[in-house]
Structure formats: C-alpha cells, structure tokens
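Obj.: predict assembly geometry.
Materials: sequence records (below).
Method: joint structure prediction, all chains together.
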Amino acid sequence: MSWQYVLELIQNILISQTGIPHMTWGHGIMLLIALFFLYLAVAKGFEPLLLLPIGFGIFLVNFPIVPLMGLNAEGHMNLIEYFYQYGVASEIIPCVIFLGLGAMTDFGPLIANPKMLIIGAGAQLGVFVTYVGVLFFGFTLKEAASVGIIGGADGPTTIYLTAKLAPHLLGANALAAYSYMAMVPLIQPPIMRLMTTPEQRRIKMRQLRPVSAREKLLFPLIGCALIVLLIPMVAPLMGMFMFGNFMRESMMVKRLSDTAQNSLMNIVTIFLGLSVGATMQAEVFLNWKPLLIFGFGLLDFVVCTFGGILTVHIMNLFLKEKINPLIGSAGVSAVPMSARVSHVEGLKADPNNWLMMHAMAPNLAGVIGSAAAAGMMIAMFQ
Amino acid sequence: MRLKQLYIWTMVTALVLASHSSLWAAFGEDIEKPKPVFTQEGTDWVTELIPRGKSTPIQIRFHVDGGMLAKPVDTDFTDANRPNINWKNYRSGYFLLDIIPESPGGEVSLTLSSNYFTSATDIWGFTERKTRTWGTIGIKTSSVKGEPTAITSVIRDGSVLDEDGMADGKIQIIIGPRDSFWGYALGTLVIRFFGVFLVLSILMIGMMLSGKIFESMDAKKKAVFPAPIPGPAPVQYEPEAVEPEPVPVEEIPADVAAAIGLGIHLYSNGGRNLRLSDDGMKAAAIGLALHLQKTSGAEV
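Observations (raw structure tokens):
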C-alpha cells in the first residue's frame, strides 16, 4: 500500500463521504436562518411549539448530502421525506391538528352571539387583497391563493392549502404564518388605535347569554352540516374540527377528547414542524419569493385586522346595541392571542371593560372564516 | 420588542425593494405550463391537460369539417416570435395544427370544444400578419346545456391564419383558447370573498334560529319544572334578650397589681438587665404566682 494510495483514499472519503467540500454559501445562509428561528423560539418565546421544530428542521436539512429529504440510492424515501409525504403532502397532519383544536375549543361565546360570524368573514379581507397583490408580482394563481391565506392567521389551514396548491412554498408560508401569529400583539394594536376613537374603545357590551350544554353539543353537528353543504372542499378540515368539538361537548369520551387535545396534538406538531422546516433546503428556498411572501404576509395580517375592525364599524351603523370595534381585530384566527390583544386594548381605554369573552366570538368565527376561505380557494382550482 | 420591530421593518423594506420591476419580472416564469396528451377519436383529436390554475385535468376536442386534421402539437409561444402576448391569458396553452383541406385554397371549419370553456373563452390567432397582431378568430360559440362549449372558426388555405400564407393545400395554424387572466382572477376573487360572507351569514342565521329554539325550549322546561317558589318569608323570631350573669369582680390590692405588672414584665423580658431587691423579688414572685393562677388555673 503506497502513500499515494492512502492519500487518494483519504481524498475520496473527504470528497464523497463528508459534507465539508459540498458546503455552499446557500447552506451557510440557511443555517443562519435556522439559528435565527431557533433563537426566536427559545430565547424570545415566539410560537415555540412550532418555530422550534421548524427551525430544527431547517437546521438539519441544510447540511450537504444528508439523507433526510428526497429519495435514497435504492429509491426509498429518507427519514423526514417519510414524515413529509405521509403527514403533510397527504394532508393528514393539518386535519389532525384541526381535530385537536376542535377538542380544545369552547364555542359558547360564538353560539351566544352569532352575529360575530360576520366579523370573522370581514377579517378575511387581507386574504383576498394579498392574493391580488402577489399576482402582480408574477405569482401563479395557486401560489397567490396559498400566500393569501397566511393572513387568516391559521397555521394548519395555511399548511393544508399550501400543501395542496403550491407545495414548493410550504416552508416560507408556514414560517410567515407562525411568525406573524406570534407578533399579533405587536402588529394589531397600532391599527386598532388608528381605526377607533377613544369613545368607541370604551363601548361596553352586554353580558353574553348563558349557553346550555345541549346547544353546545348540537353546534358542531349543525355548523358542520351547513358549512360542508355550502363548501364541500372544506370538509376535511371542518369535519375534523367539528368532530373534535363534538367529542369535547358530548362529555362521554373524555379520554378521546383529552388525547386529541394533548398527546395526539403534540405528536403531530413535532412531525409537522420538522417536515415543514425540512422543505426549506437552500436550493429551494433561497430566492426572492420567500422574502416577498414574508413581506406580503405582514401586509396580509394588517389588512385582515383592518377588515375585521371595518366590519364592526359597518355593523354598528345598523345595530342598536353597538359592538366595541376593538374586538374586530380578533377576527383573525390567532386563537386566543388576538382576542387577548382586543381585551388588553379595551382595558387600556377603560379599566372596567372586560372584552375577553366578547372577543373570543370573532376569534372563533375567524377560524371558521379562514377555513371557509381556504375551501373556496381549493374549489377554485379544482 | 425592538427585535420584533426590526423584523417587521425588514419585511416592509423587502417588500418595497422587491416591488422594483427589475426584481419581480423574474418571477413570471411559467411553472404551470400545460403538458397535453393527444389521443385520436375517429377523425377528431382529443387532448387531456392540466391548465394553468387548476389541479384536475380537462379535455379539449379538435374537430375539422372540410378537411383532415393531423395530430395537434403543443407549442411554445415565446415573446420572440409572438410579441405582446401574455401567456397567462392562455391557460390551456397553444396548439400547432396541420390541416389538409379538401382542395388547395379551400376552407375548413375548425371546432374546439371543452367543458372547461366558458362563454368568455375565445380562440386567438393571427389577424394581421404584417403587424404580427393576434386577435380573436373564434366565429361561433355554441353552448348547449350539458354539452361542452364549442368555438368554431373558418380558416381558408393561404389566408392570414395560415402560417405559410400560400394556398398550397396545407394549412398550418397556431392558436390558443384565451380567457382573460385578470378577468378570471379578479372576478372569481370578488365572488369568493362575498362567498365567505354568504356562507358565514347562512351559518349565522342557522345559529340564531337554533338559538331561539333552544332558548324557548329552556323557557318551556322551566315552566314545566318550575324552580321552587319561594314561600312566605320565614318569621324571624327575635332571640330573647338574655342578661349576662354578672361576673364576680375580684378586688386586687394595689401592691399585688404592681407585682403582677412587674411579674409580667420580668416574664416577657426574661430578666435581662434587671436587678431587684429581696422584697421586690418577693412581691414580683407573688404577683407572678397570682397571675399564673388566674390565667392557667395552677394552684399556687
């Protein structure tokens, strides 16, 4: 065995079996992006349940020649590719998350005040404005729809729609949606103050009527039937959501309801975050589109907040009992963050004005509204 | 908070920067270009393709009267050979068709039909070759309920539509079914936005009605099983005023009182920094003993 042979052997190993010679600037930038999101999740507490696994997913797949995404030499899927294909591309995980969300949700405030559903619809304004905006930037119709839904502030809905219409934008869309959801307390208050007068912010709303257990039990059945009849495309999301809620309200399957709310939700969140992060490989992610998506995502949130508050102002023209316009911003479905923001802003205007329960109603309406908008978008491209 | 603000401003700046035309022009690549597959059915050709902005395949049937149609070919339609044409308006792509008319210089009638076509769909081709102008060549649109929408165009061998421009017994044309991209995008957008309102309004009405029903049911239930009616207020009997028995008051002589006070003082201070004479000590002891007897009942 000659020295030359040994050197060749070492050279071959270094080139073909280690990642170092394959490292590019793109990988470096993506690793920095991964570290940035991990920092936001860990140090700043921004949506850590999702940004942490997403950040780690980005971190993992941006080392060269790692067998995590894509197919291996034998044509089998690599580890995270399995998670992605069976969990996200197959649209299973977003629906399972909706099941858990349904099991967590108390529709009482919305049942007590169904008028709030209109606010949930008005807060979808940004979805449609952004859709047009990104079309001007050369996005395709499907891409535009998937970017637009970011403003709905509903992570699973964004992921569901993007996986269906524009899977290549999944990472950017999911990241934008969850980042801005974490920033709701920062994005919304200036718009809320801009669009309301101090008198309007002090409007006190009548206490909600009590909702019976029977009403709560029948709501998922009635609501699901109406929505699925009108928008069949939203059945996977809405069906799971209402199923989760029915389990909760039946109070007969506490174990199942608990599992859907906790263990199952946590398990799928891990796989969802990791898979979504893993779609953000340097060669796919590093272009202008993700940056535009982040820019338009912010605009989307702003317009959705504006739309919700504007809807309340319009409703107040016709209503005897005025609605506090601060709860309009809760029409974006960042539950319960945006409701909490409405509540806090209300307290700033009047320390005795408790808006939390009132704001929860448009917040829940926003979940239904963004799912309805997603269903409309899917139907549009069938 | 500053980090969040920095992040938001970065995104706003990115949006403003990206709005520069030279940057966003690059995004218009045709990533949804249709890939048609052609099959022959009798003398007709049928193509199956997924048009831009759709997820499911559609079919377009090509039928020619007065000639014979060879297998159509999908073709690129670049700005180089067809200027001022926005490919986004041609969601099903462009087709190159070779037709043999029955005689040189003869006319053929070309019909494209599809369920995908709407009343707004047009077939576009050359209308003026010198200025390379494209325009509608669809002459007749027939839409029968339940049947695919058909658009027919009459083409003469050697006319402006014929690529070689010669009446040589061969017609070659490039055409595309056209729908306005922005018309579709904005039209469907408005409809769907109000669709969300409509759906949630219907849900709202359903919930209001069911809410009324439940409220009336609850009211009836309360009427059938009324809550226990509060009876006449129970008579409040004034408790008889009981005179407290007089507690015998024990007379304490002044010296004993002083001794008790001293004893308590000594007890609570632990005797620190205090020095007493024997009499004083005796008095204190007596006082303390009496006090203890009074408070704890110990025999002294």
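Conclusions so far: Residues 288-318 of chain A form the longest helix (31 residues).
To do: check interface contacts against the pulldown list.
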